[in-house]
Design goal:
The complex is a heterodimer of chains A (162) and B (793). Chain A is an alpha+beta fold and 162 residues long. Chain A has 2 domains: 8-84, Beta-grasp domain (Ubiquitin-like (UB roll), Roll), CATH 3.10.20; 88-159, Orthogonal Bundle (DNA polymerase, domain 1). Chain A has helices at 29-36, 81-87, 91-99, 109-122, 128-134, 146-159, and strands at residues 8-14, 17-23, 55-58, 61-64, 77-79. Chain A has a 5-stranded mixed beta sheet, with helices on both faces. In chain A, strand 1 and strand 2 (17-23) form a beta hairpin. Chain A is elongated, with a radius of gyration of 17 Å. Chain B is α+β, with helices and mostly antiparallel strands and 793 residues long. Chain B has 3 domains: 9-31 and 489-538 and 545-636, 2-Layer Sandwich (Aldehyde Oxidoreductase, domain 4); 37-145 and 204-296, Aldehyde Oxidoreductase, domain 3, CATH 3.90.1170.50; 379-473 and 641-789, Aldehyde oxidase/xanthine dehydrogenase, molybdopterin binding domain (Aldehyde Oxidoreductase, domain 4, 2-Layer Sandwich). Helix content of chain B is 27%, strand content 23%. In chain B, the strands form 8 sheets. A 7-stranded mixed beta sheet of chain B has the order 3-5-1-13-10-11-12, sandwiched between helices. A 6-stranded mixed beta sheet of chain B has the order 7-17-16-15-8-31, with helices on both faces. The longest helix of chain B is centred in the C-terminal third of the chain and has 28 residues, at 555-582. Chain B is globular, with a radius of gyration of 28 Å. The chains are: A alpha+beta (162), B alpha+beta (793).
């Protein structure tokens, strides 16, 4: 028995670039980004929407790339860590994470940075408990989180001119 | 040529030792430009998925792969019998763990599977999805065999044998009896017995295990991209079991997304992937999914320990006794074996206390669960939990404050070098100084006062203390003497280029802990250049010096020292050339801030880049009988002591909600003595990350099995790891007792946080529950177990 799954064409704007691919309907968004577009900064951690390593932005909202099918992203605007990084919007976050050693193995880091951009958009002045609460959907196995909380606190303070 | 430089690394001008320098290699990770193994793509690359046993113990009666072979995109379907023709089996024993036995283990199960998750059939296809589709079409006829899951009954006469050829289910037993334990019991005011349990948990690296192997028959070369901690060890093992010469195998280890000991072992599916690439003569990639990570990554720390402590009314500890039972799964893991965890428990329990009477027994049994092996802080979370649990048991019995009993019994700082009852030598530990520093940091007396006030209001808070010892900088005594192909020494090769930049190639590997950064700091300091001139290359067996990689908290202490010695040797070579160019005695010259300077007053002579230019482009201007050497390699292995033991103490203050069983951390402090601190921030973050990982095992993490050997929580939604919202901030302090075994004096810092955390949180919970008559001894200390302890449920 051999099954050939019919492919579907989707188009999206990824990091400002229009892309079109023929894909299987079962392909997840994160596998689409990683395997079809070779944007490997977005990672697969748990495949259950728990760990946050696959966090990307779709039409402005942060989503779990492992819980969304690529076909659902047809016609959307997608931003990944590569696009956010090259655009310079997260330079202060990257600097603070670097100086505070808020990344060790760095596997969770792109997802954490994507989540943090959303946190600081919705709550520009979070306290430590609020930061910790907001990050509860992003697992980090190396740092123990404190350095990450420190780095985000630093950026929040800097952004409000402190 | 003898190295003539006499200055000490800790006395260098413009030193980076002891400075917080952000890791140069972290920027790529922050911009999504890291290269983890699954990120690598090769031409004609295929993907392998494994059909894994769904039974904990079952005979493979027959395999029909015909439909799978016809499935779309399938390149090959390979069974255990076919795999065995290419990849030979292994037995996970070491000669220095006398009597340890295990059965031959294959890359793919042959004849029977011995745990749920053991790989049985490999399907290679053009995509992972196609490979998984085809797995559905493989027909296996299984005959279920009786399972052995309960370690308590594994050795009973009526328990079936997992490997009948071994004669029993006992993998190993070690017994130790030092001093006069029975005499101590006879004379003691109190002998307190308890049973502690550490339940099985695992590492949960966020990046799952991954390997991509490619075989080029034209040059007879295997190239393997591997998420591993020990590239040279893997090169040696793949060579041995595929019967290929080692130099025809190149293992490349790029970014590793968490390892913690999980990725220092060799796994059946990884041998199979490499063998498949060899068989198919094209690239084969394996990336574990999360479920197969839970069922095939090593598990750890499944121990039941019966303890006894003898103590006088005055608080003198008179004897420790432990009976440790641990179940390791169906095989001892290769090549480090699954005996080391129990061995550490026997070696180090009670080692920080002045007590000559010690009896220990460790019984290591086989069972039909995922194999267990070394995970961060190997054995220490267990032995520290029981040691510090026993000491608190004794203190409670005689009504002494836990701080006082520790002050009274810890080996004094001036007693070193000191030999533990197990015979292990400790060079220089600082238990007393560390404890006193911690007491100040956490304001122990203030917390006791707060605790008393809270209790009057019906709030239950507790203070925990946990002193610990940690094995770091292991020499060959750990594995090499037992026959494992694991290098105890490591090297650094330093090369000055024509522009005054320096390439440093090292045998230790980066896992995110900052190995490359601290090596760069050591190299830059020893040579006399700024950090921006240094580029570190690690994780490539074709390029770097032969080495052991990263495990046992060895990268900074061993790799750093190799870099120090290489940097000094290169400086010697450079000032020799500079002496010729400047017509000065080389012994009057130094290198500082990328310049050749006068040693005496730092007066600038020439740029380092000028030396590079002359040596490479204009050697005709140097004497005809002189040859410059701007590449040096130096190695280091600890020689005076088998291990550089570190020590420290953790203290925490927490509140237990006696209605919900939840705990809330109020304060968490750690004092760590890892000798010379090379990069304070990186050390502190190793401590913090290590503590939180230890708290995971202490509070949340447990691999739950059914009596049939089925893993019940194989997703990260069901298996809990620490999350940001519930974990404490941690204050870290240091005492520095450098090892004299190296010039640098650095010991390891990667594991001690994990080793001490379960003990300190247990002691704090029990301090809180004591007025209610409650006590927890079973890890993880879940809300349910806490409520059971106080009779609420």
């Amino acid at each position: 028995m051999t099954t050939v799954i019919e492919q579907i064409q989707i188009s999206a704007t990824v990091n400002g670039e229009k892309v079109t691919r023929l894909i299987e309907p079962r392909l997840s968004l994160v596998d689409f980004l990683r395997n079809e577009l070779e944007l490997t900064g977005t990672h697969v951690g748990c495949e259950h929407g728990v760990c946050g390593a696959c966090t990307v932005r779709v039409n402005g909202e942060i989503v779990r790339g492992c819980l969304m099918l690529a076909v659902q992203a047809g016609g959307t605007e997608i931003m990944t860590i590569e696009g956010e990084s090259d655009g310079g919007e997260i330079a202060d976050l990257q600097k603070a994470f670097h100086e505070r050693n808020a990344a060790q193995c760095g596997f969770c880091t792109p997802g954490l940075i994507m989540t943090t951009t959303e946190l600081l958009k919705t709550n520009p002045d979070p306290n430590r408990a609020e930061i910790r609460e907001y990050l509860s959907g992003n697992y980090c196995r190396c740092t123990g989180y404190e350095a990450i909380v420190d780095a985000i606190e630093t950026v929040a303070t800097e952004r409000k001119g402190g | 040529m003898a190295d003539m430089i006499k200055d000490h690394i800790l006395d260098r001008p413009n030193s980076y030792i002891g400075k917080t320098i952000p890791r140069p290699n972290a920027k790529r990770l922050l911009s999504g430009r890291g290269t983890f193994t699954d990120d690598v793509k090769l031409l004609r690359m295929t993907h392998v998925a494994f059909l894994r046993s769904t039974y904990a113990h079952a005979e493979i009666v027959s395999i029909d792969a015909s439909a799978a072979k016809e499935s779309n995109g399938v390149v090959a379907v390979v069974t255990g019998a076919e795999m065995a023709e290419v990849c030979s089996p292994w037995v996970g024993v070491l000669s220095h763990l006398e009597g340890l036995k295990s059965a031959p283990q294959h890359a793919l199960a042959v004849k029977k599977a011995s745990w749920q998750g053991e790989p049985v059939v490999a399907v290679v296809a053009n995509t992972r999805a196609q490979a998984e589709d085809a797995i559905e079409l493989v027909e296996i006829e299984w005959k279920e065999l009786p399972v052995v899951t309960d370690m308590e009954t594994a050795l009973d006469a009526d328990t079936p044998l997992i490997h009948p050829e071994l004669g029993d289910n006992l993998a190993w037993r070690r017994e130790l009896d030092v001093g006069d334990v029975d005499g101590a019991y006879a004379n003691a005011d109190h002998v307190i017995e308890e049973t502690y349990i550490s339940n099985r948990h695992t590492g949960v690296c966020l990046e799952t295990r991954g390997i991509l192997a490619d075989y080029n028959p034209g040059e007879d070369q295997l190239t393997i991209y591997h998420s591993t901690q020990a590239p040279h060890m893997m090169q040696s093992l793949f060579a041995k079991h595929l019967d290929i010469e080692e130099h025809k195998i190149r293992v490349i280890c790029k970014d590793v997304g968490g390892s913690y000991g999980i990725k220092v072992h060799s796994y059946p599916d990884e041998y199979a992937t490499v063998a498949l690439a060899y068989m198919l003569k094209r690239p084969v990639k394996f990336t574990a999914d999360r479920l197969e990570s839970f069922t095939s990554d090593i598990h750890a720390r499944d121990h039941r320990i019966k303890t006894k402590i003898a103590v006088s009314n005055e608080g003198e500890i008179q004897a420790f006794e432990i009976d440790d039972l641990t179940g390791i799964g169906p095989y001892s893991v290769y090549p480090r074996t699954s005996g080391i965890e129990a061995n550490q428990v026997v070696n180090l329990t009670g080692g920080q206390y002045l007590n000559p009477n010690y009896r220990a027994m460790a019984t290591v049994v086989l069972q039909n669960k995922s194999p267990m092996c070394q995970y961060r802080a190997v054995g220490h979370p267990i032995l520290t939990m029981i040691t510090e649990g026993m000491v608190d048991d004794a203190a409670r019995k005689i009504g002494m404050d836990p701080l006082e009993i520790r002050r009274k019994n810890l080996v004094p700082d001036d007693a070193y070098p000191y030999t533990a009852p197990s015979g292990l030598p400790f060079e220089n530990l600082s238990h007393q100084a560390s404890l006193e520093k911690l007491v100040k940091m956490m304001d122990y007396d203030g917390l006791r006062k707060d605790q008393a006030e809270a209790r009057e209001q019906g709030i239950y808070r507790g203070i925990g203390l946990a002193t610990f010892i940690e094995v770091t900088n292991p020499g060959p005594a750990f594995y090499g003497v037992g026959g494992a192909p694991i290098s105890a020494q490591d090297g650094a090769t330093m090369r000055l280029d024509a522009k005054g930049n320096v390439i440093v190639e090292i045998g230790v590997t980066e896992q995110g802990q900052g190995a490359e950064a601290v090596v760069a700091q050591c190299a830059a300091t020893a040579l006399g250049v700024t950090m921006d001139k240094i580029k570190v290359i690690a994780g490539d067996t074709d390029i770097t010096p032969y080495g052991g990689g990263t495990w046992g908290s060895r990268a900074a202490g061993i790799g750093g020292e190799a870099a120090v010695q290489a940097g000094k040797a290169l400086r010697q070579n450079i000032v020799e050339v500079a002496g010729i160019m400047l017509q000065s005695d080389p012994s009057t010259l130094d290198i500082r801030d990328n310049k050749i300077v006068d040693l005496a007053d730092g007066k600038e002579r020439i740029e380092l880049s000028e030396v590079g230019r002359v040596c490479y482009y204009r050697p005709d201007t140097l004497p005809k009988d002189y040859q410059s050497e701007l590449v040096v390699t130096r190695h280091y292995v600890p020689k005076q002591f088998p291990f550089a033991f570190t020590n420290g103490v953790q203290g925490c203050y927490l509140e237990v909600d006696t209605n919900t069983g939840f705990i809330d951390f109020k304060k968490f402090c750690v004092v760590e003595d890892c000798g010379t601190v090379i990069n304070p921030q990186l050390v502190d973050e190793q401590v913090r990350g290590g503590v939180i990982q230890g708290l995971g095992g202490a509070l949340l993490e447990e691999c739950l099995y059914s009596p049939e050997g089925q893993l019940l929580n194989g997703t990260m939604a069901d298996y809990l790891v620490p999350m940001a919202a519930e974990m404490p901030d941690i204050e870290v302090g240091h005492v520095e007792s450098p090892t004299l075994d190296s010039e640098l004096g650095a010991k390891g810092a990667g594991e001690a946080g994990t080793g001490g955390a379960p003990a300190v949180v247990m002691n704090a919970i029990n301090d809180a529950l004591n007025p209610l008559g409650g006590k927890v001894t079973v890890q993880p200390f879940t809300p349910e177990r806490i409520l059971q302890a106080i009779g609420k449920i």
